[in-house]
Design brief:
174 residues
Length: 174
């Protein structure tokens, strides 16, 4: 006997919140930089190359948004701390997590970058829609758009490294 196909494509099931295990309270699982220094340096190099020519405040927003979407407390803490030191306002930092509901805190260009960050970070859900890419392309020259994409990819890589190695957030994160 076969089950009838769901016409809703099971979107409700796919949208259900993920139950995450509690964060580890101990030390990191692995010192990635020491265990794979050449890989660590390569990711640092990609990160540095991606940032060239991008507005540092925009780069902070992208990294914060990626970290928020990936539930990476270590990176979220690090990037919000760096953004505060660079002069970012508390209002904007608090609004990054809900930027869709608070677009007035961000320029059109920043909103386009945040939308692209959402799409690339959550790429398995819907890919990168043409409208999202088009919006970003309207605000960024081709080279700048490529660097923005590289920054989003790098932010996601750092998030995954931190999560996989159980990096802790806060003053004792090292």
């Amino acid at each position: 006997m076969t089950r009838p196909e769901s016409k809703s494509n099971d979107r409700a099931t796919a949208a259900a919140p993920t139950v995450r295990p509690k964060a580890r309270s101990g030390a990191a699982r692995l010192d990635f930089a020491k265990a794979a220094p050449e890989v660590f340096r390569a990711v640092i190099g990609l990160d540095a190359a991606a940032r060239e020519g991008l507005d540092p405040a925009l780069a902070d927003l992208v990294q914060i948004r990626s970290s928020y979407l990936n539930h990476c407390a270590h990176c979220l803490h690090m990037h919000t701390t760096d953004a505060r030191r660079a002069g970012e306002s508390e209002e904007r930092l608090h609004a990054v997590g809900v930027w869709h509901e608070a677009p007035h805190f961000f320029t059109e260009k920043e909103q386009a970058a945040l939308a692209l960050t959402d799409a690339v970070t959550l790429i398995a859900e819907a890919g990168v829609p043409d409208a999202v890419h088009g919006r970003a392309a309207a605000h960024f020259e081709e080279q700048e758009l490529a660097r923005l994409l590289a920054l989003i990819l790098t932010a996601n890589t750092w998030n995954r490294i931190a999560l996989a190695t159980a990096k802790r957030a806060g003053p004792h994160e090292h």
